[in-house]
Structures are given as C-alpha cells and as structure tokens.
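Good day; I would like, with your permission, to put a structural problem before you. What I wish to show you is a protein chain and, alongside it, a tokenised description of its three-dimensional fold. Thank you for your consideration; the sequence and its tokens are set out here:
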Amino acid sequence: MESGKRARLSDWRHKVFNYALNLFAASALVFSATAARAEDGWKVTFTPYMWLQGTNGDIKVKGFKTHLSDSFLDMLDSSDTLIGGFAHLEAWRGDWGLYLEGNYSYTSTKGEVLGAIKTRVETAMTILEAGGFYKLAGGAVDGAPKQNWQIEALLGVRYVAFNLKADVGPLSLDRTLDWVDPLIGISGHVDIAPSWTLIGHADVGGFGISSDFTTNLYALVGYRSELFGAQVLSSFGYRGLYINRHDSGKNNSADLWLHGPVLG
C-alpha cells in the first residue's frame, strides 16, 4: 500500500515537472521580447504563464456529450499525459495597443472497461485571442510619482476549439467543435508600491453571434524586479473563463467554466 502511494506521488511530481517545463521553454523568449523595443516608440512585452486550469460543465460535440468536473489536481491525478502552453503578447505606442494571446491544453487518459477492453480518451483545447487597446485614463498615483495607474478599453475576437478523441477497443471517435466570438472589455492596473501592482481584466462576448454569452475574468498581483538587466513582472492570481454556446442545428453545445490559479 505504501509503495503504491509513493508511486502515485512520483507520477504526480513527474506530471507537474513536464507541465512546468512548457512554461520554462516559453520563458526563454522573454529576454528577446523584452529587448524588442523599437526606436519608433513601440513597447513590446511578452508574458509566458501557467494557468492551473480546472473545468466544470458540459460539452456536446456532434451529439457526443460529456460532463466535466475536474480541478487541476484531479486532472493531474487521472491523466497519463498533461501538456499546456499559455502566452500573452502586447505592443503599445502612445495611447493605442495591440495584443495576441494563445492558450493550449491537452490531456490523455488510459483505462480499461470490464477489465479487458482498453480505452483512451484525449481532449485538446485551443484558445486564441487578438485585439486592440485604447487608454481611457491614467497617470501618476497621488503622492507617489514613480507609481502609476491606467484603465484601457479593448475590442477583439476569441477563437475556441475543442477536440475530443475516444478509443474503446476497436471503436474510435474523433470530434471537433470550434467557433469565433467577438468581445469587448476593460482592463487596467494600479501600482500600490514601487515594486507591487494590481492587475484586473474583464471582457464579455458572443452576443448570440457564435456563443450565446462568454466572459473572461482575472485578477493578479504583480511584483517588479530585474533579471540580467531586463525588467520582469512576476504575477499570480486567479482566472475564470465562462462559455455558453448552443448550436442545435449541428447538435453542438458548451456550458463550461474554465478556472484556476495563474502564475506568470
């Protein structure tokens, strides 16, 4: 019994290591991105991060429906493969900015039915966002000229794709559901100390065009430091993404909360 617990703990650590390795590989790009400040006034920042994502809700892809209710730790415990990559890129010039964001996660779970029939379920989710910012207000914090605050409006689009593969003995199923949502939102930050800042973001979208409704919310605490001469903002907080979409004509639907801690 004790050896079994040690084996599960070792397997759990191995999965965490592999998941973190994706972030480490992406973070190697942060130095080149930090240096990519053009002389014409553009300021570019790149943020690799980890979203320890759990999932609650239901999804139906071409008639195949599944219920999801897993925290990030549940996913680590039940899956044999867990891969994730998350990155955010911004470019600002004056009061205007552009952004790109990419999220990808993949899980694979093996098992058996009736002790003999081997099963394998693979799920992959891709989220891509693109849009623009406009600075609504901002300036120095009263009494602290080296600290500032800013609020900006944003307008963009979000592409979401779910892919589900299931193998049960000789039978195989492969389904994909994807769509694009328009979105509007607001974000901002306020420095609460020379090295500390609070970051917030909220957007809504869908409007019945693709999804009925979708919203993306996150709140972060950031700490500024220097690493090899480059300015680095380390952040942690929580993110939640809600999707409500129904397409009865194609027998597809999604009613999901994706949520969990963020480390960037």
Observations:
- The longest strand covers residues 117-141.
- The first helix runs from residue 2 to 27.
